[in-house]
Every structure is written in C-alpha cells, then in structure tokens.
C-alpha cells in the first residue's frame, strides 16, 4: 500500500486537483508497461485536470474522484467550506499561500468558520485537514480516505484490466461538473454503456464495518433496476463479501451519469467509512480488500 | 377506457419501468396498423426502459412519463420514499420480493416510514399503493392517475397523429434523468423544436375541477413567453375548455427540456387532480376529455 | 452612456426577453460597421431569444444575461416572483396586459405577494419595478443594473474586440436554461475554452464600493484554480483597480458553464452593487469603469 501512503499526503481540494493529476500521471507512466494491458492515456489542457485511461475495447468505465473537501480563506480570518467538511473546533488545517506554508486551527462560531493563523492568509487560499494516518490490524484511519481509497482501487484494477475506461474526475465534493465533459469525451472516443463509481460510502444502521464492499441500491438517486439486478447477481456468485445499501441521501459522480444525455447505467460500489468528511475517516481493511476484488470481478464480466 | 384499466394495474416505480414499457410495446404493436400513420418504434437496451414513437416528420414531441412514486424497503422494517408519496397511516402497499408477493401497511413515525409485513422484506424491494379504481359519472379516482392518464392521453393521440414524436419517459417522479438522453436521441434522429408535457397537475386556489384542461403558464420553471402565447391563442380558438395555471412550485419533464442543450420550447398541458401522490388521486372526466381533445388539436397545428 | 439609459427602460423578465433582444439587434446593426471588427450576428427562432456575436477567431466568450427579476400575476390579486426580487411594501410595478398598461404597488403579507391595481390583471402577466434612474458624481442607482450594466459592458467591449464571442443570454435570474443550448451552438460553430461572466455581484463585508471590478474566486460554485490564477495574474499586471470575491453563495451563468459537457473554464468578473434585486440597485461609477477596462484588457490577452 505504498502508493496509498503517497496519495494520502497530496492536497487537492475541489477545483485544485492538478497536483494529484500530476502524481497519478507519473505513477501510471512508471507502471503501465507492467500491466496486463497498456492503456491509452488521455490528459492535458483540453481535459482540464482530469485523467482518463482507456484499456482495450471499453464496455464500461470506473470513476474515481481526485478531489477532497476542504476550506477556503475568505476575508479577515474567515474560512468557508469546500464541499461539506465536518468541523471539530481546534482541528489542524494546512495549506500554502504566496507568503509561505500555513498550519492553523479551525473554529466554528454561530455557523461561521475562523482560523487562528498568526498572520492574514491570502483570500482564496485552499486549506485541508492535516494528515494523520493510522493503520491497525483491521482498520485504516486518515483524512480523505474518501476518495484516496477509490483512487487506490482504480489503480489496483489497472493491473489486470482488459477492457474499460479508468477515469480520475474532479469537483465531485463541490457539486460536480467534470463528469458531463468526461462523458462527452468518452462517448465520442470509445463509448460505454455502464459506469461504476469507485468511491467511499457511509456507515449507517444498515451498512456496517466488516460486512464487505457496499453495492448501493440507491442513495439520493436511484439507478435502473435492471442494471442493479445484474450487478447483484454477479456479486452473489463472486463469493466476495458484499452488503447492500439503501439510503435516501448522499450522492456521487453517479448523479451526473444519471442526468447525462447518454443512456449509461451506473452503480456506486465501495467500502463504507465512519467519521465521514472528518480527519478521522475510518475504513475496515477487509472491506477495502473486498472492494478491490469486486471491481476486478465485475469489470471482467459486465 | 379499457387500456386505462390495464395501465392502472401495472407497478412501475421510478427506475423500474420495464413492465410498463413491455405492456405499452405490446399494446402499440397490436394497434399501430389501425392508426392513421404507422409510427417507427424505438426501444431496446440502448434506450434503457424508454419507448419512443416517431410519426411522419416531427416538429414536436409529446412526453408522458411511465414511472410512479412509491416506496423502497430499507433495513429491518423500514421504508424510504421513491419520489414524493403522500403517506396516510395504514395505507396498503403491494410488491414482490424473491420470497413471494407482499401486501402490507405503511406507517409514519417521527418522519420515518415503516411497514407491518409479517416477515422481513428483501432490502431494496419496490412497493407501491394498492390500486382501488372508482369511476363515477363525473370523476375517476385511483392511485397513479399521475401519470397513467398522461400515458392514456398519449396513446389516444397516436390514433390520428400525422407528425410528431410520442415519448414514454422514465424517472420523472424521482429527479428525472431519462429526458436528456431521449432528447439527444431525438435531435440526432429527427429533431424537434417543441415539447408538450402530457402529465397531471394539481388542484389549487386557481385551478379547479371541471374548468377544462390546464395549460401551464409556469410552475417552478417558466417556459418562453412567445411559445406560451402561441399555445394560448390556439387553445382559445379551439373551443375546447381550458384553464391557465400560474404556480411557483411543481415540476415535470419540462424542467429537463428547459435545461437541455437544445433550443426546444416546452409547455405542460394536462388535467388537474386532487389528493396528489395519494392512492386517491381524483380527476374530472370532463377535464380528461378536454385534455385528449387539446392534444389532438395542438399537435395538428403547432 | 446613452445606450445605458435605453437599456434601463426595457422590460424583460426571465422568459420574455424578446424586446431586449430586438433593441440590441437594432443597436448592433447600427454600430457594427464602426467597430474594429464587424461580427457575425447569430439570432432567430432556432436560437430562441438569445443573441450571439462572433468576432474573429474566438478563444473565449463573454456572457451577459438580458433578463431581469420581476413578478407574475397569479389568480385574483396575487403575484408570484420571477427570480428573487426584494420586496418593499408599496413599491411601484409596471407592465401591460390585453386591457392596457398597468401601474400598481406590491405588498407582502405572510409570505404572499399582492398588488393593488384597480382591476384584475390577466393571469400570467409579467410586471417589473418602475424605473427610477439616479446618477450622481460617483454612483448610478436604478432598477436592473443587474444586468443592464453587464450588457453595457459587453457592448462597450464590442467596439474593439478582435477575437471572441459576445453572448446575450436569457433565463439567468430564474434558474437558467439558455446557456447549455448556447454552448452547444458555440462549440459546433467556433469552439471556445473559456467564458467570462459579465454580470453584477454583491457588496459584502469583503467586497466594497470603489475598490475596483470584482474578480470572483468563488460564489456557490468554484472555478478551476489554474484559470483563476491566470486571470488574477493578468488583473494584477493590468493596473486596473480590482478586488477579489470569496463567497459561499450566489450564482451566475457560470454555473451552467461549470456543468456543461465541455471543458470550458469560467470566471465571474463584474462591478459590485448594493440593494441587490431592489429598485435601488447602486453601483460605483469607478467600479463600472474598471469593469469596462478589465474586459478589454483580458479579452485581448486570454
């Protein structure tokens, strides 16, 4: 899991994913020749900060978002959220502006956010949680497991994938916006009819640690039943541990597949986490293992 | 109204419209040779569960959504809504899971929904209101008049339509998502410049039973005034009873036409109902009759 | 500023922009031969009420919305809002229905809006604030500076623009809907990779009168950092007064660029106003001057 350690140290709040894109591009270029199939790599200004890999003759795509939630400095010592971070008073944030590196604490008062840095932070500076990775026998705990684990899963899939797109998207935590353009590019280049969303979901009263990778029947949005049935049948026959999610809230890159101008089925599949959008996101290693295996299994058969 | 009786008995919550699509396809195949113009029929995996009929050389399209509101079983004995059903405690729901048919009652407590079925229902099972159709001299009352009447109106229009698309869409009650892909298909196949939304609206303090079909000047969204003026002028000269709706809430498939990447005008035209999204939706037969006639009149002249 | 006086007298609530489109088309046809580059003019039924000018070989586009907030008559003496107008009881509204011109006052009671006109107003009639323009040495105050000043800025830019689209859009104040179709047209005709939103923003605790044109780092939506950095670098070297906005709410035509199926960067750039969406919108003339200069500077260099 060396690459995961690296992934967890990179800052990339929504709209500022270029460092993560750069890291992934280097990693992929170093590894791709050892993969079962060497992918076509699509990136550059015309794709903004997104990164797309095309393996063989794709029938479907796997989406892993590169961005994280975070904070932006406003005027004076104010902060405003990027996406929906959970704030516990005194949590350390890090970032950098033109005057140098920043390490400060965040505080909430009457619904407003403040930092305690010793000097003014340039307005518009992006901050994110200071990283603190803890790995025990059964769990990993860190900031931004959502969605560093989804990226890690996508990279793992690359090793043996024969046919399919692997997509690293942007802006997911803050309303989205890159998936429509990614889909337009994919449908013109080598079209697909399904999408799997490689992302991390939430522990709830029906989704538990160590019960396997989550196949989501719905969150705020509902995928098409015929596609869900096919996925669930395959999951059942795979002998890989999985659990079903049925929630009325939450969303993902799947939302933008649902509303796209193409008939593309989608399903969210990922490990569940505790302490969502906090610096202490926590995922069971056995659920992560099931996630890795399920993607390999499904992408070979869908 | 034999076909309407059949339509009212089919379960098809948002995302699970395949039975309704199947029924309509059979019905259309049986009838199409008796219609004034025999349409091209478009359906299949590449269109998901949607169904599109192309008559002659279309200038516009009529959209009727096939899905209904309903419920999905969550964990334990919980339910979560599909779309926005009105819940009265003790209302009977029906459905089916792998263990057999289901008939149970729904209860709301502290904003959460529960069922009283004697066994666990497989998580992710879709339930909908038990049907109870009542037809009197002046009214029809049943579950899902929204949008079985809109489908019925579209089928009636098929008998004499010369030019136009008739579209049976999915997902309308739960945020939409099929209209963007339908429009992409239509604009590539035989493009249109207007859309009429064949759907059922609400009785309000200005929209009343027996005042005729509703031409909607606006709901949450506002169509373009130039197109509305044309529709209202035609409605006025038609001698078919109609009333105008001006509301600040409510939405329809028209929303996704408004936000589509094509310059397509749209207008919602349909009979109004009482007891919206309950098992006792109620529509005046004279308003339904005006709806049928208005669509025939408008589609020949727009 | 003669043309601005004319712009301020034209009624054009969202969905009813044809008078403004007509005025602009006439103005442009009279002036275009005196401009540095004579643009291609795109308009007509196939573009609804939008108006697009293509200068030279565009790399980007400037968007100015033509619509304003306002009111629509409902049933009896009720009104409902178009967009989000600020209502002060007793404010005068004007409009016209088939029975003649209308001048009445608006009142709010328990969250509902009413008018006091002496007769019934035809349901669906559009009303907007009576205009009252006041120009002092340092400020302009009037209804609809948002977005008459954005249009004025776009027209000023036309005089010297060499390469770029100048776009007059519709529906911005009421949820949007024309930008997706405009972008589809632009990308098929002469594609772009950036968009500047020529619109008016808000005075806040960090955005002040007389501090220069606002370059918005974010509102509810966040543009891509790489593009913002380029804009801010250019603004800094321009010596034109500018200030940075970092807000968590507010939106513009930029929203629809963000969610479009094209990789198009965007940034909101405009003067700030007090008394937003009231009949007394107030903008500093020096900020307006900086806005005019900044667009000329940026469009030559981006």
Notes on the protein architecture:
- The structure is a homotrimer of 302-residue chains.
- Chain A is of the alpha+beta class.
- The first copy, chain A, folds into two domains: 2-68 and 135-299, Zn peptidases (Aminopeptidase), CATH 3.40.630; 70-130, Elongation Factor Tu (Ef-tu), domain 3, CATH 2.40.30.40.
- Helix content of chain A is 27%, strand content 30%.
- The first copy, chain A, has helices spanning 2-8, 18-31, 145-158, 179-189, 225-238, 254-258, 285-301; strands at residues 40-42, 51-55, 60-65, 70-73, 78-82, 91-97, 100-109, 112-115, 126-129, 134-135, 139-142, 164-169, 194-198, 201-202, 213-218, 242-246, 265-270, 272-274, 281-284.
- In chain A, the strands form three sheets. An eight-stranded mixed sheet of chain A has the order 1-2-12-3-13-17-15-16, with helices on both faces. A six-stranded antiparallel β-barrel of chain A has the order 4-5-8-7-6-9. A five-stranded mixed sheet of chain A has the order 10-11-19-18-14.
- In chain A, 52% of the residues are buried.
- Chains in contact: A-B, A-C, B-C.
- The interface between B and C is medium-sized, with 24 and 34 residues.
- Chains A, B, C: One of its GO terms (molecular function) is metal ion binding.
- Chains A, B, C: It comes from Arthrospiribacter ruber.
